[in-house]
Amino acid sequence: MEFFQHILNALQFGSFYALIALGYTLVYGVLRLINFAHGDIFMVGAYIAYFVAVLLLGGEGMHGLGLSPALTLAITVPVTMILTSLVGVTLERTMYRPLRRKGADRLYVVITALMAGLMLENGNLALLGASRKSFPELMEKVVWTFGGVSVTNLKVVVIVAAIVVFVLLEFIVTKTKIGMAMRGISYDKFAIPLMGIPLDTIIVVTFILGSSMAGLAGILYAMSYPILEPYMGALIGWKAFIAAVVGGIGDIRGAIVGGFLLGFIEIGVVAVFPSTLRDLFAFSVLLGILWLKPTGLFGVAQTTKI
Amino acid sequence: MKRMTIKVLLVVLAMALGAFALMGCGQDSNVIKIGFNLELTGDIPKVGEASKFAAEMLKEDINSKGGLEVGGKKYKLEFVYQDNEAKADSAVNAALKLITQDSVVAIVGPNSSKQAIPAGGVCNDNQTPMVSPWSTNPDTTKDRPWVFRAAFLDPFQGPVAANFAAKQFGAKTAAVLFDIANDYSKGLAEIFKTEWEKKAGAGTVVAFESHGTKDQDFSAQLTKIVAAKPDFIFVPDNYNQVALIIKQAHDLGYKGPFMGSDAWGSAELMTLCGKDCIGQFFSTHYAAAGAQGATKEFIDRYNTKYKYVPDDVAALTWDATRLVLQAIQEAGKVEKDIKAERKLVRDALANIKEFAGITGTMKFHGTGDPDKCAVVVQISPEGKFEFKESVCPQ
Amino acid sequence: MQKHTFTISLFAGIFLLTVLAQFGVINQYLVSVIMLMGVNIILSTSLNLVNGYMGEFSCGHGGFMCVGAYVSSVVTVLCFSKNHILGAPLLPPSLALLAFPLALAAGAAVAAVAGLVVAIPSFKTRGDYLAIITLAANYIVISAIDNMEIIGGPRGFMGMNATVNGMEGLLDIPWMLLWVLSGTVFTVWLLRRFVSSTLGKGVPAIAQDEIAAEIMSVDTNRMKLIAFMLSSGLAGLAGGLFAHILGYVNPHSFDIMKSTEVMVMVYLGGMGSLSGATLSAILFTVLLEVLRPLEIWKWVVIPLLLILLMQFRPEGIMGNKELSDLFPKLKKYYSFK
């Protein structure tokens, strides 16, 4: 029974890694840019969800609208996704695009992203103070127990959301025109504008997609682990990035597989070995995977022209 | 053009360096400066913030009465805050800056042992008294005559928790969940384990699990713990993680009690944890609910000023700072020479045998570590920390 | 004679700084900042070899620094302090001066060997996949030390002061400052010699085009091995110095945050420019200290400044040029073989 419980736990935590890894992979697939601010966009998403939810619900000393939790959830999800994607697009417009225009090395954009992430974290700390925020309960928690295995309704929602998002993104990228343009840009950034495809628009769409996924992950995360703090996105962001790369960065299936894989490895190590060894073993396994498969599980080796 | 930019950059760089080298401050003979080396940013900003708030409140108190009276003359207090970013190297630099640039008489902080151990070394080498409010690691003050602290040590707190749990829950087996990357949490967990197995026999700690500092998912560890069926779970962890741990344990179907340590004692615990925490026990420095006298006055004033009930760090910073101020007063005079003044303060600090703090009476025996009582509190249905038992060192 | 101006003024500068520190003209705080500056210069120039010259993206430099810090600390503590592993010190304190550089070298050597963890996968793995390997290596090092109870685990490790005191017992001058400055000069000298040697030319060749480099008879695997090991070894040297400046090490001082700082210094200075890496390490250290009064806002202002700087100079302060390329007259003042 303990075994099934571990599997469920791994599925839930893997879903978060997967959702965040999707954002990394989308942006990377199009721009070859590791958007290190992504983990912090996720954090901002959780905070936006918090403020929207408190505003709608009321309580905590704020005069809200006093809506019911279910209605609040229904409004919070789209509003948070829209506002979070605005944050992502703002970063792209004010920081990444000017650098790209100047023809800077792509690693300078990466460092800029890192700095932007630091700014979001510490700006939040400076503006909102060091008190952690407690996310209101938007969903009545139900615990189902099947012969020693406990599942909450939230866990199911999280896992389903990750899968739905994956299917949706896979559809957008492989079946729609925008998706085709996105794939095109990742092949050749210079030829695509010649085909009459607006490069900047596609990039903005990519950021909207990636950041809104981070926003969604932020809400779900805040509901599952209802304690918000400015640094909550840093560690999970790094780990999701690792998951995205191990899956094969730039590939949507890779992000999903990598995310769940990391969830399973981390929880599996704890389940079998003393939990003090978790990071040591989990990262050694990942290192081993990359050693054997140098371009990740789904990644394609880039052809080098001579 | 490009070369121009670089030249301008280089000039700016040179100027910044020059300005930096020339930095320094004047001295005012009617002011006593005390330095604070705090974790304002980094992993534990709340700890630094609480310390700063408590210190500010104390400063306003004394300055509004005209200042601190030493040897018949009133001196204004000036508190200098340096952020150590919760990093060891930054704490050393902050300490050195306070000592050499800001010429402070004494330093309060750092709070966390990771910063307090190296900063203590620096203060000791540079002969500046330092009082850490919150550090519980024995190394902070060990063989360092210039370093003091206001908190009790881990080797005292571990047995308190073990004895109380055995008595209260009638427990035969225990499980422990701790933060491996946090020396405080790990140290306490190990001491508790040794103590418990000494009492209840080998193998009675049925699960001994750890997690990382910024983790928020503990389901794997808790699944293992719940499967081991302990009589209670000991969680020597910071309050933010405690809230998540208890909620997740309940999600996994655990119904038994929890026992915690002083790091639970934050006002935020109940806003974060809600009804899941009600009825749990933890050992701490002071009980906010049902406090009397100076302690109650401090809590009420802090609560009105900053809108939350102060946690143990705030109370301990208050005590640590008052300890320093008392030493300055007992020295009887203020020397013009900063080195002589520091020596006076250190000797006065070392001479304090007993100090009535708001976190309880501290007795010093020349090691810089206080003997003080720990209290065990229970979280009441209203979310108050209610006094349950007081344990004093023999 | 003119050719030696630079060398002479460098050594005169070191001598002057030591004398100033000795007689208390510059205070302890400034000395400590200068020492951390030196450590940062070693870190940023050594990472520049991999991230700048070789064009890889290594983001786990802190891990190697950690290895060097712990190894050299364990050596000096075993030799010169009372410890819980062996008990009494192995050597009399008068030997500290002799043993300290050996301990630093040991730290650097072990860190270089740890660099193999990254160097060997780099034969096949490149780019962002290699970045993850370095990141994982950083996590692995920290987690391994967390689990090593004998060297304190997360509680950290201390006792290095005895060695520094031993050296000061022989002759009371600011030894650590001297060691850091010599270590810094040694690192920059070594890297400068390496990248301008015939052998070292292979490193930028890999950055430009690995296959072409191979065709031109560059043994790319060997070059990668050398570059990674040299880089991580020097990071280990920086770690050893860092540990003895603080007298205390804690595995979490070397986490991703540290690696990020070093990365920022490299890209701020300019990829493939040693003088750029040096300048940016100085600038970064000074910024960290000068902005202290801002408290919480410091870490909002620093990233903002760096972002602005990159907007105006998207290739870093120096680009891929050295100071002597920009000011050719400087070449008159040093001879370089």
Tell me about this structure.
The complex is a heterotrimer of chains A (about 300), B (about 400) and C (about 325). With about 300 residues, chain A is mainly α. In chain A, about 75% of the residues lie in helices and about 5% in strands. Chain A has a single domain, classed as ABC transporter involved in vitamin B12 uptake, BtuC (Orthogonal Bundle), CATH 1.10.3470. Chain A has 11 helices and 4 strands. In chain A, helix 1 crosses helix 9 and helix 1 (about 1-30) runs antiparallel to helix 10. Chain A starts with a helix and ends in a 14-residue tail after the last helix. Chain B is built from 12 helices and 16 strands. Chain C is an all-alpha fold and about 325 residues long. Chain C has one domain (about 1-335): ABC transporter involved in vitamin B12 uptake, BtuC (Orthogonal Bundle). Chain C contains 15 helices and 2 strands. Chain C has helices spanning about 5-20, 30-55, 60-80, 95-115, 115-120, 125-145, 160-170, 175-195, 200-210, 210-215, 220-245, 255-270, 275-290, 300-310, 325, and strands at about 155-160, 250. In chain C, helix 3 packs antiparallel against helix 4 (about 95-115). The radius of gyration of chain C is 20 Å and the shape is globular. The chains are: A mainly alpha (about 300), B alpha/beta (about 400), C mainly alpha (about 325). Chains in contact: A-B, A-C, B-C. Chains A and C meet through helix 3, helix 4, helix 9 and helix 11 of A and helix 6, helix 10, helix 12 and helix 14 of C.
Task: Describe the secondary structure blueprint for this structure.
The complex is a heterotrimer of chains A (306), B (394) and C (337).
Chain A: H1 2-31, H2 38-57, H3 69-101, H4 106-128, E1 133-134, E2 143-146, E3 149-152, H5 153-175, H6 177-187, H7 191-194, H8 199-224, E4 227-228, H9 232-247, H10 252-272, H11 278-292
Antiparallel strand pairs in A: 1-4, 2-3
Chain B: H1 2-22, E1 31-38, H2 45-64, E2 68-70, E3 73-83, H3 88-101, E4 106-108, H4 113-125, E5 130-132, E6 147-149, H5 154-169, E7 174-179, H6 183-200, E8 205-211, H7 219-228, E9 232-235, H8 239-251, E10 258-260, H9 268-273, E11 281-284, H10 293-306, H11 312-331, H12 338-351, E12 354-357, E13 360-364, E14 370-371, E15 374-379, E16 385-391
Helix pairs in contact in B: 2-11, 3-4, 5-6, 11-12
Chain C: H1 5-22, H2 28-53, H3 61-80, H4 96-114, H5 116-119, H6 127-146, E1 157-158, H7 161-170, H8 175-196, H9 202-208, H10 210-215, H11 220-246, E2 248-249, H12 256-269, H13 274-290, H14 298-312, H15 323-326
Antiparallel strand pairs in C: 1-2
Helix pairs in contact in C: 2-8, 2-11, 2-12, 2-13, 3-4, 3-6, 3-11, 4-11, 8-11, 12-13
